[in-house]
Amino acid sequence: MKNRWLYLPLTVAFVAVVAPFAWMVLGSFKGEGEILRNPPTWWPDSASLDNYTQLFSRLQFGTYFFNSAVVAVAVTLGNLLFCSAVGYALAMLDFRGKKLLFTIVMATLMIPGVVTFVPLYVLVVNAGLANSLPALILPFLVSPFGVFLMRQFISGLPGELLDAGRVDGAGEIRIFARIILPLCGPALATLGILTFLGSWNNFLWPLVVAQQESQFTLPVALALYSTGQNSIQYGLLLAGATIVVVPVLLVFLVFQRRFIEGIATTGIK
Amino acid sequence: MTLRRRGAERAAWLLILPFCLLFAVFTAWPVVQSLFMSFTDTRNRDLRTPFAVDFVGLDNYVQAFGDPLFRTAAANTAYFVLVGVPLTLVIALTAAVVLDKGITRFRAFFRLGFYTPVITSIVAIAVVWRFLLQDEYGLINTMLGWVGVEGPNWLGDPDWAMPAMILMAAWRNFGTAMIIFLAGLQAVPQSLHEAASIDGAGAVRRFRHIALPLLRPTLLFVSVTTAIGYLQFFEEPFVMTNGGPLNSTISATMYTYKQFGFGNYGFASAMSYLIFVVIAIVTAIQFRLLRERS
Question: Which of B128, B182, B183 is nearest residue A24 as measured by Cβ atoms?
Fold first, then answer.
């Protein structure tokens, strides 16, 4: 049943998946002439950090990186806190409106960003938040998906935990913070990584709402530079793409085991 | 006990309050207002007075269906979904089966590699693939040249731009489906495989008659989530072709974004709702099919 020859097509496929990233990273160290050379080269003739220095000096990629990071961290923390709180309430507490809340969460799991961005833009402008980081953060601080994920996980925890806490006289919020939350590690990790990646790579809303360079996130800056009117330097594009991709790649490689397990379980449930 | 319960009730409300507020303001309300706007002639000059606008009934929807460019965008989106989803799933399922049953070593290594593109920004990927797909000195055409094939001018040819984007989307996205399939395959009891083996069923028949039927709910789930993602494709044409050449890659979301940019908020809202309706229908079909099976 196990076939040795399958390693050949698998390796070819692996190279095909990884090669564009390798070409991107190697290209980011090349000079302008070499990137456009025919036939294309793999290894840079003379590697230099020129493209990167230009990104951070001539263009403001430092600012964009900072914006992307602040937004992603804030959005992730918000989701971890608020979604787990709702997940706990839905899984373990009784309160009026519980059924309605759960129905709303389930019905809105798939609301696409394209449906809300026009009125959201009107709202943000009228609230005086246009061109500010809060405009990039607030709409994503909670997600029905996060609530669903946390509810499913907390439902699987033994209910005796709750009773034990109650016997000790702890309030519900204390039970949540001291007993439930520490047990939610795996679910919080999955939600945290998914949310961080989603925010870091998010494009449509930041593109709509950030209209000054000082508020650009990395994908917005990269997309607008790559489609811009003024002369484009290809080396800068590849270096910019590398800066967008490599940090999340490193984070992913560190957490990959937990992450892939998370995808597999949330996918089926 | 009642005191206790009242305490729990108050705690529950405290816990759900931040979520409810944020969700109401930034999701629920915009969803409703988007529908409202789609029946009005709201333009960017009405930005400060979104309710002092005229009702135009279904005009925006009529305009959308009559707009040749929206029809092109809708057809392009359908093309992207109808070709892209099956292609992505076939690659994913093949990879999952090979990793599950075909090999014994380096399984985690290949799984990790195939999954990697999923976590990366589509904008960054599109920037890189624009180079790879270049006509003269692009890496892909150079490699095709080695085997004697003269590759097309991918992004410059109205017939090839969309296939190139679909290829890129499948390349980026098959990893998610593969992981979910793998988990599904590993949940198939080994005893079923062994029993079928004893009955003389080969690997292909075992896959068709044991794994595939058990995998059906997973397949359905994955095809729907992939379709919902592909229905909204936007970054790829935005970065790679600006919707061209000859509008061959403009997508429904991209055209909505463009109309928003022109200040036609009512019209843009109507088109966004049309996309929403299609997504809702696809989701409803999924729930229906899943319920029938269980």
Answer: B128
> Which residues of chain A make contact with B129, given a CB cutoff of 8 A?
20
Written as tens digits, the pLDDT of chain B (294 aa) is 455 567 778 889 999 999 999 999 999 999 999 999 999 999 988 888 877 888 999 999 999 999 999 999 999 999 999 999 999 999 999 999 999 888 888 888 899 999 999 999 999 999 999 999 988 888 899 889 989 898 999 999 999 999 999 999 999 999 999 999 998 888 888 888 888 888 888 878 888 888 888 888 888 889 988 999 999 999 999 999 999 899 999 999 999 999 999 999 999 999 999 999 999 998 888 778 767 665
Residue A192 lies in a domain: yes
Report the alpha-carbon distance of residue B171 to residue B178 in Å, rounded.
Answer: 12
CATH number of the CATH domain containing A142: 1.10.3720.10
* pTM for the model: 0.91
Q: Which residue of A has its CA nearest to B45?
A: A122
Give, to the nearest 10 degrees, the angle between helix A7-27 and helix A234-268.
Answer: 140
Contacts with A234 from chain B: Cβ below 8 Å: 131
The interface predicted TM-score (ipTM) is 0.90
> A117 in a domain, yes or no?
yes
Number of domains in chain A: 1
Alpha-carbon gap, residue B156 to B118, rounded angstroms: 26
Smallest CA–CA distance, residue A98 to chain B, in Å, is 9
B257 and A260 within 8 Å at the Cβ level: the answer is no
